[in-house]
Amino acid sequence: MDKIKQTKQLVGEINRLHREFSNAYFETGKIEKINLSKTIKHVPVPHIYKYRLTLHESVNDYLMGADIDIKYFYRVKTRESIDDKIARFSTREDQYPVHNWLNDIFGVRIVLTANEIKSVMDLLDDWQDELSLKNWYLRDKEGYRGLHVYFKNKNNFYFPWELQVWDAQDIQSNIQNHEKFKRNFV
After folding, report:
1. Checking DSSP bridges between strand 106-112 and strand 161-167, what pairing results, if any?
2. What range defines the domain where residue 52 resides?
3. Contact 150/136 with Cβ under 8 angstroms?
4. What is the pTM of this model?
């Protein structure tokens, strides 16, 4: 199977897992559903922590049943990283909805060639409705380059998940960039 088909398969599986986990977490009536299209002052931080902990404890159960044929890396954001992000975004003059910036509690990365990334970007418009994507963009700033794709299953109560697609040539600079700008809490 070629990398583009494998990437589409991965995108579909991440979205399916996001939907299944979110349904199991939010739709049972055990957890209060809070509209994440509100700003951080309307979203209790313990709600975020509980989601993160539950995801951290159960994500492997979901991934073990996934149909994924491409090498990928994943992580669940640490509580310290969440605190850092909340601190940065809650002090901004312009307040944004929580689901617009706390969109990576769960993140997956894959590495493709530049040509493969371009092919994926050309297909994302077609995949948006088919695979229920939230949005995507290509970030090329301050030594970091990567395609970011977001999943939220069109639900403002579900925390979005993120897929980052990196060019193999950008791995070292992207890692250095993350160490410099995204890990100030360490």
Report:
1. parallel
2. 3-182
3. yes
4. 0.91
Quote the radius of gyration of the chain (alpha carbons, Å): 16
pLDDT in tens, 99-147: 999 999 999 999 999 999 999 999 999 999 888 899 999 999 888 999 9
For the sheet containing 73-76, what is the strand order?
Answer: 73-76, 106-112, 161-167, 144-151, 133-141
Alpha-carbon distance 57 to 40, whole Å? 24
40-67 residue pLDDT tens: 999 999 999 999 999 999 999 999 999 9
- CATH number for the domain spanning 33: value is 3.30.460
Which residues are within 8 A (CB) of 99 and not within 5 positions of it... i.e. 6 or more apart?
36, 37, 152, 156, 158, 159, 160
C-alpha distances (whole Å) from 70 to each of 6, 41, 110, 180 are 6, 39, 8, 29
Q: 1, 137 in Cβ contact below 8 A?
A: no
Count of structural domains within the chain: 1
